[in-house]
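Design a sequence for this backbone.
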């Protein structure tokens, strides 16, 4: 079955420079991690206030300097294990050196109907003077009312005059930190996702531009686009080569899961998609908040739902049309699709209260660096102890500030290269 192409195997042991064409390839959650995309949090986090943190999807006001230290330690832990770390802001600045990319990203910001013509002209003029690094900074951290100078020669019009001092002319993107959600790789193709929450929609204009215009990604084919039905990367797990699980709930819609199935079937990237309904709540906004993989046949799962999670199985009929079957218990359906007798479950909590606390703090959201080796937040002591007992090594990282956005190591990383799993 042509669901993965073997001609494009990457050399994971051989890190590549940011510029120049490289082969990217991911066919599982656990194959040895070669390259990952991170975003070091910056001034966009300093935009969070008690007035806007809810709509910007943060549960607290992070201490920016400490969040950066925690993030640097996360990146260092990955590099120490031979992982190439790419930074989104660097790729964005390099992308903005391409004239079409700069024009497109600027135009997308200016298109906002909130601006009005006079302010739009003023913002266009302001942005036109910025070099690629500074423009990348504004696209990420936004532009505050106070940061835009207006005068008689450079008027901001009625909109600027009536704007609250605390409003943004360009909204910041504090959730770019969670690079998992705005794009995903399946095999050698990238999918730019379609984010559900208004505070995050503009993120995919950035990932779309990077993957279309940055020389490193020249020729990469797309398996999903931001104009399609809602789909977020945190909901997509590559259970095994050819087998995907897609959570549907607060973010990814059933229509998004069905669209992804059509696209991956048409591209020959998978033969089975398991669609997993999850509660439409903040605590379980993505499938990866309750389930991540830690070995080729093992998942770390929130115990309070492990036995109630169900799945609809989609396979392609001979015309490529998705056929839906189920629901069936998720663990059974997954094992069948993965051709295993059973999927091992590492239970995260000892009692329901500890489980609930550690799930909230992203205990279930681990990033596998290889089979049986993962990164997890150190604060989830009981979850990590359970993992160690099950023979999974945990690299603990601090996340007291990073965690205030409700995302753990998996959310904060988008793998671009993993060693292919042997089938
Ligand atoms: N893959 C994930 N679980 N991502 C977590 C994203 C958290 C982010 N604050 C949001 O609400 O969108």
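Sequence:
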């Amino acid at each position: 079955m042509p669901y993965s192409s073997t001609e494009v195997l990457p050399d994971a042991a051989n890190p590549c420079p940011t510029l120049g064409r490289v082969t990217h390839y991911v066919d599982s959650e656990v194959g040895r991690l070669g390259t990952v995309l991170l975003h070091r949090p910056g001034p966009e986090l300093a935009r969070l206030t008690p007035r806007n943190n809810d709509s910007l999807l943060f549960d607290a006001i992070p201490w920016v300097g400490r969040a950066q230290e925690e993030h640097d330690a996360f990146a260092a832990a990955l590099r120490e294990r031979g992982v190439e770390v790419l930074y989104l802001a660097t790729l964005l600045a390099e992308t903005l050196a391409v004239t079409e990319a700069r024009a497109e990203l600027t135009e997308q910001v200016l298109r906002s109907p909130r601006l009005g013509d006079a302010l739009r002209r003023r913002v266009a003029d302001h942005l036109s003077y910025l070099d690629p690094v500074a423009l990348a900074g504004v696209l990420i951290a936004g532009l505050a009312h106070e940061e835009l100078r207006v005068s008689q020669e450079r008027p901001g019009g009625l909109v600027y005059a009536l704007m609250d001092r605390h409003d943004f002319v360009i909204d910041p993107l504090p959730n770019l930190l969670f690079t998992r959600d705005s794009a995903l790789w399946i095999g050698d193709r990238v999918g730019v996702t379609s984010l559900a929450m208004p505070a995050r929609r503009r993120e995919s204009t950035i990932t779309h531009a990077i993957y279309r215009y940055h020389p490193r990604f020249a020729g990469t084919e797309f398996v999903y686009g931001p104009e399609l039905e809602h789909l977020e990367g945190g909901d997509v797990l590559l259970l095994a080569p050819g087998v995907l699980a897609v959570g549907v709930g607060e973010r990814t819609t059933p229509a998004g899961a069905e669209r992804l199935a059509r696209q991956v079937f048409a591209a020959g990237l998978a033969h089975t998609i398991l669609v997993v309904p999850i509660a439409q709540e903040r605590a379980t906004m993505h499938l990866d908040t309750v389930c991540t993989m830690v070995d080729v046949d093992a998942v770390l799962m929130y115990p309070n739902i492990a036995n109630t999670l169900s799945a609809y199985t989609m396979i392609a009929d001979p015309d490529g049309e998705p056929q839906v079957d189920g629901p069936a218990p998720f663990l059974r359906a997954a094992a069948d699709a993965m051709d295993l007798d059973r999927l091992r479950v590492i239970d995260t909590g000892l009692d329901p209260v500890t489980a609930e606390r550690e799930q909230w703090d992203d205990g279930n959201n681990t990033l596998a660096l290889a089979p049986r080796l993962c990164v997890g937040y150190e604060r989830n002591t009981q979850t990590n102890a359970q993992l160690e007992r099950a023979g999974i090594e945990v690299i603990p990282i601090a996340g007291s500030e990073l965690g205030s956005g409700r995302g753990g190591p998996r959310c904060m990383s988008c793998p671009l290269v993993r060693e292919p799993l042997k089938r």
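Residues 57, 175, 178, 180-181, 197, 200, 234, 285-286, 288-289, 405-407, 411 surround arginine (CB under 6 Å).
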